[in-house]
Write a structure and sequence with these properties.
The structure is a single chain. The protein folds into 2 domains: about 100 residues, Topoisomerase I, Chain A, domain 4 (Orthogonal Bundle); about 70 residues, Gyrase A, domain 2, CATH 3.30.1360. The chain is about 60% helix and about 15% strand. The protein contains 4 helices and 6 strands; from the N terminus they run αββββαββαα. The chain has a 4-stranded antiparallel sheet with strand order 3-4-6-5, covered by helices on one side. A two-stranded antiparallel sheet has the order 1-2. The protein is elongated, with a radius of gyration of 22 Å.
Length: about 190
């Protein structure tokens, strides 16, 4: 039976691991996979009155159809700045404006671009797994210190390590599932 202190260490590790998984999930949403997705612009920054601001915070971003992203800035003078930010972000599409709305037609992905996106997704997944393993290592170290300091027994320490490993395995599995789902989405033509 885990003590409160050991449970706290395990729960804290689980929360940190879930944060790593959530970060990966948000990162994978920004990949352009051949269909219009407004979240590809979440990390594109535009200069807004001297501060670097994400496009969705200075404009309304929508997808009128499966192959187009429409950006309607709240301030018309932002149109050229938003266009430049999109071009500089090298997202693989060219913005066009009619004086009020910026439209970004989304071209189909090439085979080379798909493979590149899969490599990026796998690398991001591996980085998340490394973060999860580092969190596991820190939690196990905390459990060992707790046992050494007399906060709980060696049996509690071992049980805590087992629980941390279970949490690690479940979060690693979640990372693998996210990457596999993104790979499938990327390869779907």
């Amino acid at each position: 039976m885990l003590t409160d202190k050991a449970k706290e260490i395990v729960n804290e590790a689980d929360e940190k691991m879930q944060d790593a998984v959530a970060f990966l999930e948000e990162d994978l949403k920004t990949y352009r996979v051949g269909k219009a997705n407004p979240s590809v612009l979440n990390n594109v920054m535009v200069d807004y009155y001297g501060s670097s601001t994400p496009i969705p915070q200075v404009a309304s971003v929508s997808t009128p159809d499966a192959r187009t992203i429409a950006i309607q800035p709240w301030d018309r003078h932002m149109i050229p700045l938003i266009e430049k930010a999109i071009m500089d972000a090298n997202l693989g599409f060219t913005p066009q404006n009619n004086g009020e709305i910026i439209r970004c037609p989304i071209p189909a992905l090439t085979e080379e671009r798909r493979r590149d996106l899969i490599k990026r997704a796998r690398a991001a997944g591996e980085n998340s797994k490394v973060a999860v393993r580092n969190i596991r290592r820190d939690a196990v170290d905390s459990l060992k210190k707790g046992e050494k300091n007399g906060d709980f027994s060696e049996d509690v320490q071992r049980e805590g390590e087992t629980e941390v490993q279970k949490v690690t395995d479940s979060n690693t599995k979640a990372i693998d599932e996210l990457v596999a789902a993104k790979e499938k989405e990327i390869m779907t033509v």
